[in-house]
Design a protein that fits this description.
about 20% helix, alpha+beta, six-stranded antiparallel barrel, Gyrase A, domain 2, single chain, Elongation Factor Tu (Ef-tu), domain 3, 2 domains, six-stranded mixed β-sheet, globular, 9 helices, 19 strands
Length: about 375
């Protein structure tokens, strides 16, 4: 059996092929990295008008029962108890070392919670979470395989979606959601979070309806299909972390500039708390930073980083940002120099290229409703 035969496909695979997408293996799926217009065109479409992403490869877990809130509060670092019904937040799963097993979204419904996790970590996250459920009065269900997820992103997203739903989209605040009908499909969770810095919505619904909902959203001619390539350039311009590049199980939230996700005061216990308390008291040794390079240089994941002539790590993420028109990237630097304006070097094809720490986000002009 070939590698491709073992990969999964979303319900929109045939649609992507028909649109001429370049399909690549990603997180165990065959996914569109770009369409014929190219990554830069897709990126600008999202910044200026509207793009539609198939992100159905992501994982969704439903947690139900009297102990659901206490349980999810225990396995994540943010404060789930403060979520109102119809509200979502960003969070992390940590292990006992205080390092990040995954980042996630937590949605609070009236009678359950939904955890949205990275596709590459579905099995790992399930095992990590389930093993800690024993003392909590709740159950968990993995609905990833039967859940489609589309992300409609860009300043025109509200007007595009409004053509296909009677839901009052203006009433959905940033990091909030509701359930309604979209393009004739009932029980669609409509959330307003995003991974691009632009306004937009995420639509969760039964997998069988994916082609019909995709076709409806694309029917007006003012929405561009967008692949994983544009998703990466958009999120990097916003300084948003990508698991496997910027964060992983060697990195703590404090090191990744995600201290705002760690609620030590509000929560007396959660997985990784003791290690995070110890690191906060001892001092954080390194920090994730954004940086820029001179034009005509492209930083790539894994390139070596040097401070004062000594290797100090590697590039985590890197590209040329289409909106900022600069080579941009992220890496870890010692905390005492991890501030805007600091100079260091990135090794590109054997040459040490000067780099400068930049404030994040690189692109502060997004249309996201915050």
């Amino acid at each position: 059996m070939s590698v491709l035969e073992t990969l999964q496909r979303t319900a929109l695979y045939d649609v992507h092929v028909a649109l001429g997408a370049r399909i690549v293996p990603f997180a165990g799926f065959e996914m569109p990295v770009q369409y014929p217009a190219g990554i830069t065109a897709e990126h600008h479409a999202v910044r200026k008008s509207c793009g539609l992403f198939d992100v159905s490869h992501m994982g969704e877990f439903l947690v139900t029962g009297p102990g659901a809130i206490d349980f999810v509060n225990y396995v994540t670092t943010n404060d789930v108890a403060k979520l109102a019904v119809g509200q979502a937040h960003y969070s992390t799963f940590c292990n006992e070392r205080g390092t990040i097993e995954d980042d996630c979204l937590v949605y609070r419904f009236e009678d359950h919670l939904m955890l949205v996790v990275n596709a590459s970590n579905i099995a790992k996250d399930w095992a990590h979470i389930e093993s800690r459920m024993l003392t909590f009065d709740c159950t968990m269900e993995n609905v990833s395989a039967r859940t489609a997820l589309l992300a409609l992103q860009g300043p025109l997203a509200p007007s595009v979606l409004a053509r296909h739903t009677s839901v009052n989209l203006d009433a959905i605040a940033y990091y909030h959601f509701t359930v309604g009908t979209v393009a004739g499909v009932e029980h669609v969770t409509i959330s307003r979070t995003g991974y691009t810095g632009e306004d937009g919505f995420e639509l969760y619904f039964a997998d069988a309806h994916a082609p019909a909902v995709w076709a409806a959203l694309m029917s007006g001619g003012d929405v561009s299909p967008a692949g994983l390539g544009a998703r990466d350039t958009l999120r990097l311009e916003m300084g948003m972390a990508l698991y496997g590049n910027d964060i992983d199980d060697t990195v703590t939230p404090y090191e990744a500039n995600l201290a705002w996700l760690v609620k030590l005061t509000a929560k007396e216990r959660f997985v990784g708390r003791d290690a995070l308390v110890a690191q906060k008291m001892a001092g954080v040794p390194r920090k994730l930073v954004g940086f820029t390079l001179p034009v005509r240089n492209v930083p790539r994941h894994g390139m070596r980083v040097f401070v004062d002539g000594e290797q100090s790590g590697e590039v985590c993420s890197g590209t040329v940002g289409p909106s900022v028109a600069l080579p941009i990237g992220t890496c870890f630097l010692p905390t005492d120099i991890a501030k805007p304006g600091t100079h260091f070097h990135v090794e590109i094809r054997g040459t040490l290229v000067p780099a400068t720490v930049a404030a994040l986000p690189f692109w502060p002009s997004g249309s996201a409703k915050k």
